Amino acid sequence: MAGRGCNLECVKGDDAGKDVIEFMGPVKIILVDQPTNLYMRKRFAAAAIVLAHMMMGATSMTVFYYTLSYQKDTALFASHIVLGTAGLQLCMPSGILAVHKLAGSTAVLRLPHRPFEHFLFQFFAIICGILSALASYFFGNFKITVHSVTGIAVTLMAILNAIFGIIVYDYSGTRIDHTELGSVRKFCYKTHKFLGMLAFTVSSACFISGLLKETFVEWAPVVEIPYITGIFCVCYTFVVLYKPLREH
């Protein structure tokens, strides 16, 4: 237990805050260690989340470098790629992972407060998705393709899903889980969860279809790069959706 938790040394000084409770007098303290197999699964899950973030960064930076090949007269269309990648392949999956109990970015937050980071990420994802779609329509040679259809679909699904998210959001910041919800809000929660999984799946399909475009394939200095980034996308999509799919 000592190697996995926090002792008094880690809450000394300014880091302690105002929520440190000190017990005086005879107190019975019961420490319950979690089963070894459960702890091992959590270790692998936490590592998978970190690896997923690294893969997101690798694929996104590859695409960002690709946009540098655009000339000034097509820079506004390149913003479609930057915004779409940042919103739908960085913010959206990061927002989903933010509510995971093993996510490092929310490890310092209490469980009821973690949905706020989820909300913040998804808000930026929707804004970037809308701006990306507008940039593609007004500044690019817009055509009906798999990439464009899936891009529009994921943006619309994200907007619709935000409505359900607003309904089930815990504005009091005290709810630990969703068993306390009424029947209507519980239905909205399940719908929100399902639409979120579907939206990110479509987002990844849109992203992979963009990686396989002729312009990106020709730009890649190594022919395997589009396929490697596509495989990375599939891997972190699986990590992001594994827990929601298992619980749904």
TrEMBL record:
Any Pfam family: Cytochrom_B561
Phylogenetic lineage: Eukaryota, Metazoa, Ecdysozoa, Arthropoda, Hexapoda
Subcellular locations according to the entry: Membrane
Cofactor(s) demanded: heme b
Membrane topology: Multi-pass membrane protein
Superkingdom classification of source: Eukaryota
GO molecular function: heme binding; metal ion binding; transmembrane ascorbate ferrireductase activity; transmembrane monodehydroascorbate reductase activity
Keyword set includes Transferase: no
Keywords from the UniProt entry: Electron transport, Heme, Iron, Membrane, Metal-binding, Transmembrane, Transmembrane helix, Transport
Residue spans crossing the bilayer: 44-68, 74-99, 119-139, 151-173, 194-212, 224-242
Record-linked InterPro entries: CYB561D1/2 (IPR045150), Cyt_b561/ferric_Rdtase_TM (IPR006593)
Keyword Transmembrane: yes
Enzyme Commission designation: 7.2.1.3
The protein's name in its UniProt record: ascorbate ferrireductase (transmembrane)
Cellular component, GO annotation: membrane
Xref: Gene3D superfamilies: 1.20.120.1770
Primary localisation category: membrane
First and last residue of the signal peptide: none
Origin species: Pieris macdunnoughi
Sequence ranges assigned to domain Cytochrome b561 in this UniProt record: 47-245
